[in-house]
Amino acid sequence: MAANEAREFGKYELVSKLAAGGMAITYRARMKGAAGVTKPVVIKQILPHFADEPDFVEMFVSEARVAAGLTHGNIAQVFDFGEIDGQYFLAMEFVHGQTLSKLLRRAQKTGLPGLPMPLALFVATQICDGLDYAHRHIGEDGRPMGLVHRDVSPDNVLISYEGQVKVIDFGIAKATSVVEARTSPGTLKGKYPYFSTEQARGEQDLDARSDIFAVGVVLYEMLCGRRPYEGELAAVLPRILDGEYPRPSTLNPAITPELEAVMGTAMALDRAQRYPTAQAFSEALREQLYSGWPRFSPAMLSQLLGHLFAEELAAEGRKVDVTPAFLEQLAAWQAQPISEPMGAQARPPGSASGRTSTASGVRTVQSRPGSDSGRLSSNTGSRPGLKPSTNGAARPASNAGARTISSASGRRVTSSAGVRVPSISTMAAPPLDGQEPSTAVSQPATAAQGADDERHDTPVEVPALTQPKLVPDYLRPVREAKEREEQERAERRQRLVMLISVPLFGIALLLAILHYFFAGNEAAVVPMGTQWISSIPAGASVKLNGRDVPGVTPLVVPNVPLDQANTLVVTLPGYRPWTKRFTLTTESGPPMRADLERLEPEPSAPKAEPTATVPAPDPAGPQQAAAADPQAGTPAQPGTEAAPVDLAKYNQVDYPTRVFVLRPQYNAFPVEKYATASIELNAGASYSISTTGSALLGQGRASASNTLAWFAEGENLSVDDSFGLIGPTPRTFKGVRKLHVFLLDDDTADNAGAVRVNLRQSKWVPPRLLTFDPNRNALVLEPQHQLALRGLNPDAIYLLTVRDDFAELRSGGTGRTRRVLCAESSQKSGRRNHRLLETGKRYQLTGADTLRCTFPDSRVEDNAGALEVDIVDVTAMSRRERAAALRGASR
């Protein structure tokens, strides 16, 4: 895009290109509104190779939706996101300023070794405040969302010219990692120098403490002028895992032991030893900031940006004022060098600690790292609010010999770029001996002070200006020599690491294999206990977690895992199986007894005489003959057949009840038996599937739905991955051989509409279409294939708690499920709604008179286990009390 060429992009107008990265291109843009109203924004267009990945699109839409809900002064607001002409984009708040990375580079070019200490501490606190808000963000369901940025770095921190600090690109790193994990499995990508130790290990369960580590790295870079871990990936990762980096105080002697301890806590290898929250880290940094600079003003950050980027602001027609006090403080900061890691380099002549100068009649003191002069002086003779003269190491030990002149706070000074900068309320102390400012700023400031000496009587401390022109003459060659030496050492270390990394990797792999075979079994030992089980009648067989237990009841069940959910199944021919879910917490659990229920009751008719062994034709038909006593020599007489087994209690529950139980033995339905809408798929391909249109299950708009239930068949699918709900938001399916879609209904006579299921494999393969017809594909389940909870009050509000348990739809670890498909319905409103209930969670139910639940399955004969659901009427509770109940601990 040409510099002055703008082009349309939906309701936006792209003005100029700001940056291009590995994931997106960023534009400065205008959002056009009614009556010609425009708003400056930033448009981030996702690159096509990411947009073609269904996994990325799904994650991008999900994370962008979350980011749009973040409203905090230290987070750049996301106004809009979506797709225009096949191009996915984010519309973000336009922050008139610079990235922290660009600020650091510009500062070093102007002679600043890093960001001045009070400004670095302030920026870090602002980053922490924004992250803490996101980490604690509550979703619409009232539960914490567990957001993690994952990519905190100077590139993702914006600083406005007004001094505001904002974090950008929340959630984008997580979306990008989805594609990178597929295209380059087993590799680490991203800004690896800012990785936490768990990120360097490739772990995915990151939490807020990973962001805290990254902020610690950013603070290290701001204070020390370099990152703690420099070099190529192969050289950096081992040092991150070992925590091997130069101590901050060896690079910047101004860093106190207290601040170094704060940084060390944030960058601890074990995340359990870091600050638990970003707020705790922020409070520790604020304590360091305001204990050393009690009258610190954020306006200093604005002035620093205005001075460093004066040319850019002048090109925009903006004026920036710089105060003499700020220029003096800037000169002091520029004269403060950053040490080498070992701190053994020679000092330039004349800069020894404690040297005094009397050339201008002023005594100045050079402080030593770790001495008392590194803290804020409490001397009553000092001027209140005096700023430290360097990054924090050198402060006046005494003002007894200082020459006092009048303050120049009322005047303005113009920078070399012709841009003026506004003054701030407090004046910083001048540089000390051995840290003289450059002549470009020291000479005008001195002249101005002399001019005002006779008109004002406000005393300030003035440093000695002995031989100011010698400072840049010897500091620059020394600094350049140190940089070249450090660069050469880093290159040698990198070459050495590359040479030995391959054989070391092979040795580590061999050791890991040996450890797996010889020590892996011992390390993976799970504590076991025993459980006594008896039954009435005795002699029953027992299964624990799907495996047979030797012997019959009564017996002791050995090898029961402790602190885990276990399933006991007791079976005896002629009796209904007895199932018990339990968690053993001690080595010997309390005794259990299984009261088995007969499948058929004892015959009520007397036995026939032995001579009547050949029955006459039974006019009542075969059903009565099939109910004859199996132990008798004759069939039962008409009217004396056994009563049918009552399974209604397993398939229907009437409210009020405190709990209802979902058993896959009695509440699962075989999918192939019903007329679902189905399609054959390639199990080796990946599909992005979504829905369009809507179906009416009954009369009225309340019954309209664009969400469908689905069941997938595949060789390696776990039960939890074999059924669920799908809607307009694309969802990725892998390893699916056949896909079924359906809805649950109680009557299909008044259904209407249609839902189209779009199946997209890739841009080179034409998309496929599956149509759901509610007249043919809405399922009216037979009673034995579901559980119906009836008698609910549509005007009441119920709290459902699914206990932390699991059911088994097939044997093996992949056969366990912790979810069940349910449908709410109301005859009064015609409302139909489908939802998934998951174990360990709580749900609010209202507006329904019936709740139907079932387990979609391909084979119901091998099912076991049960899910228990508590139900409580919470209508009388206030909204706040109900929200608190929903957030309560799971059972």
From TrEMBL:
Residues 363-392, 404-417, 436-446 have a biased composition (Polar residues). Residues 12-290 form the Protein kinase domain. The keyword ATP-binding applies. PROSITE patterns: PROTEIN_KINASE_DOM, PROTEIN_KINASE_TYR. It comes from the Bacteria. The chain crosses the membrane at residues 496-518. Gene3D superfamilies: Phosphorylase Kinase, domain 1, Transferase(Phosphotransferase) domain 1. It holds the Pfam family Pkinase. Residues 338-469, 583-641 are annotated as: Disordered. GO terms for molecular function: ATP binding; protein serine/threonine kinase activity. SUPFAM superfamilies: Protein kinase-like (PK-like). Keywords: ATP-binding, Kinase, Membrane, Nucleotide-binding, Serine/threonine-protein kinase, Transferase, Transmembrane, Transmembrane helix. Residues 350-361, 621-639 have a biased composition (Low complexity). This is Serine/threonine protein kinase.
